[in-house]
Amino acid sequence: MQKLIAILIGLSVLTACGGDAFAPSDDRVFAPGIAGESDIDGLIVGHRLMAAGEYELAHRAYTRAAAQQGLNVDTLSALGSANLKLGRLNQAERLLRRAVEEGPEFAAAWNNLGVILMERGKIAEAEQVFRRAFATDSGNSDEIRDNLRLALAKLDDPSNTVLQENEPFQLVRRGTGDFVLLSTL
Known about the structure:
This protein is 62% helix and 3% strand.
């Protein structure tokens, strides 16, 4: 009996709120607990989409983040990485060069610029950029260290493609996680 009374009270409260109290106010997808689109961090969404291999959607999320936060080192680096995954090497290189100018202490941006330079065949410059990333990171990132090692091997023997087929260059981002770039060099 008490359960029935509690259910009736609950239903009357919902009815008093108006039958549509929990329905979305427009035709967007309704997600309880999410106040609004502006509250969602486009960088986090973009990072998750990159990890899932959804590079075009990640690019859109990063673009929204840039519109909200401005073109800072994080958004420039993220946009550059997404462009790299989409094969837009010129745009990626431009964005990542801006990112390292904006934040010269951001090791992930240096690393990702090095990956682009390797993709474009600029091995000597890529090796220097990987050295900078390694130094900026104080040697703490295995991915950056591996990228530097591969660049040094490629610099010593430019015809060696076996190394990169077995151990591709890796993109990294601020925080945890990495994105693997399958190189065609």
